[in-house]
Amino acid sequence: MADAQETNERRLRRLRQMRKTGSVTNASEGLDGIWKAGKEPDRIVLRSTLLRADGERSRLTKLVLPRGIALRFYLLAAFEAQCRLDTGDPWENVLPLKGGGSWSTLVAIDGAYDTESGTYDAALENMPPDLRSSARTEELWRRRKLDALRLQQVKGALRTLEELGQEDALVTMPRGARGQRLYEKFSLMEEGGRGDRQTPDFYTVPAHHWAASKTITLPKDFFLKGWIQVLNPSEVATWLILRMMSKWAPKKHHTSGVFLTTRPRMQLFGLRDDAWEDGCQRLLEFGLIRHAEAPEPEEMVESAGTDPLMRLLLSQPTRVRQPYEPHLWQVTDGGLAKDAAETVYNALAHRQRALDNAAMKRAQHDPVRLAGSPPADQ
Asked: Per DSSP, what are the bridge partners of residue 289?
């Protein structure tokens, strides 16, 4: 419980800072500008190969990391491509990494937090004394430092996407004369990775009309309302998997919901229990999914058609839900229309109050532990 308290409070603090600096708003405005200047797609299409596990883990779950923005960056790149290009068109980078209209401006971060002082003012420590003449110059210095941190995050994301492996890499970068990465010349790969052929599988825009088993669709509000900036990687991964399942079995999704138990989830997607369960709970609190009624398993299996993976997924025995059995979920796209930063902040603040109250009640029943002393039997 203490870990949950600390993790939730840390996330609240970061989100509070992003709201204070307008980081999410600025990034969303940058994406909105790209959307309006381009084809204004209602939905972004992803190839489902991003989710399918190859062995123990999928490319998606390899990007469920506690730090960094690799998964976010790849989805942002797909968004930018589909605002600009037609179906089947090859991708090439047209944005700089930093400065106005760059990749860095499309990413929201909180900045450098100093644990000793408990503030974000550590950036001012290296500020030349002659510049500390006004609040305006200090703010400009903070923004400069924040821009530098955003660039670091973008470069880190590109390295992570390239280092997924020879065949699984979602980005490739040429090298300079001294072997250094030429970040601005990166190439985007298809969702299935670079591939094992001599010619890489460079990214092209997928078609909306492809079979349900081949694609996932993401509503534009996921990008334009800030959700891509404030959801953590495990929540995004869980949401993508639920979206894929809802497209595989749309009738059952709308009437009685979809579900996953451990074995098919690990075989199909490689997402572990803790990431899935926590992801579902947070998405529920944020209003992006809801509980559904129990499905009718025979009808679900029939709706799977001939796809063996779908039949494995939907042929799990079900009955009235018992403890430790999977929940049944429905994806609710209406929640995406809300302001993501505000919605997530309010949900996390409510959760923090519940966690704090639970900790206080436990402490009242165990004052020795509250004082930091070991239990009597130790």
From this structure: 331
